Amino acid sequence: MSxxxxxxxxxxSRHSIPFEFAIPWEAPLTHMYGRPLLxxxxxxxxELEVAGAVDPGDLDPIVVQPLPAxxxxxxAFGNLGFRFRNADCEKGRIYGVNQKLPFYQEIEFTPPPxxxxxxxxxxxxxxxxxxxxxxxxxxDKRGGMFTEGHDSFSRxxxxxxxxxxxDWEGQLNGFLQDAGRRKGFF
Length: 186
What we know:
By secondary structure, the chain is an alpha+beta fold. The protein has helices spanning 68-79, 113-116, 168-181; strands at 31-32, 35-36, 42-47, 57-62, 83-91, 103-110, 119-128, 132-141, 151-159. Strand 1 (31-32) and strand 2 (35-36) form a beta hairpin. The relative contact order is 0.14.
């Protein structure tokens, strides 16, 4: 999309071109717990053609903070003792989830001692919509002496209007306990 046509700019002068760009609800988070999320960059590709310039393109980073409901769930994971490990975006679709973007973000956590005997890693994916979001939990489960490890999944919907009325630490503990007992998808 072009925002402006040609114009001349005198030495030392400035020129602003105001514009708005709607960020998709599913945009990956770039910040969490008030800090930048290493490994996740979201930006707008911009181009400014300047006579004689070699590279007119640029990626201008934007900040995507968690929605209040996402922040509440991230806080609950922290309160349960899960520690942030990594975040990445994966190309593809999540079974049973209505995605608009061709990729999704996984936020990876290391489990606390009370879960570590059964869980190697927890991956959380938020797929946000205007009034609610789907939350997908993927548990990388440890194998036993005679069993292989495997992944277990759980999915639930969070309504933004009622997110503050839920004991998320209790709910997430229940989801994790249930998912830890199952194999594969629910």
